[in-house]
Amino acid sequence: MSHHLLLVLHLIGACIWVGGHLVLSVGILPEVYKKKDISILLNFEKKYEKIGMPALLIMLITGVWMAYQFGVPVQDWFQFKNPMETAISIKIILLLATLAFALSAQIRVIPHLSYQNLNLMTFHIISVTILSLLFLITGTYLRYGGVNF
After folding, report:
1. What span, in angstroms and rounded, lies between the C-alpha atoms of 24 and 45?
2. Which residues cross the membrane (predicted)?
3. How far is CA 34 from CA 23, 30, 40, 115, in A?
4. What is the pLDDT of residues 37-49, one digit of tens each?
5. What integer is the mean pLDDT of 2-12?
6. CA 132, CA 110: separation in Å to the nearest integer?
7. In the structure, what pLDDT confidence band is assigned to residue 149 with cuts at 50, 70 and 90?
């Protein structure tokens, strides 16, 4: 598959992922707090999960594929030997952190979610939104040859 097509698919996934989390953070959460109604959050999550999770999967597949095209195979991840490898490794670290928050939310928070413990869910949502933006920013560095420290 061409690099350009992989990039387009990756960017569509990123639009869905980052956009959905921004809508959740700045649109849905304030409404939940204002109305004191967590069903608004749960309804959004239920609808968004149907496109958000496939978008994340597409980004994962296309990201790994592009990493190989950039000459950074899995055995070179987390070596931080060159700028391209560093950028890819940072994106993988961000992915792992995102997955940790997602698992925590699904296992620990959502099953017991109420208005009284909404702050914990808010922390998870804001954290994943920030991680998503960092994903996006780090990805822009790949256009310029990676991350130089």
Report:
1. 9
2. 6-30, 51-68, 88-110, 122-144
3. 16, 6, 11, 11
4. 999 999 999 999 9
5. 96
6. 20
7. confident
**Across the chain, which distance is largest between two alpha carbons, in Å?**
51
Q: What are phi and psi of 22, to 5 degrees?
A: -70, -40
Long-range contacts of 48-54 (CB under 8 A, 24+ apart): 48/20, 48/24, 51/16, 51/20, 52/16, 52/17, 52/20
* Residue at 35: amino acid letter: K
Chain segment 67-101, per-residue pLDDT in tens: 999 999 999 999 999 999 999 999 999 999 999 99
Q: Which two tokens stand for residue 51?
A: 């496109």
- Residue 61 C-alpha from the chain's centroid: 14
The pair of three-digit structure tokens given for residue 119, joined into one six-digit string: 């702050």
What token pair was written down for 60?
């994962």
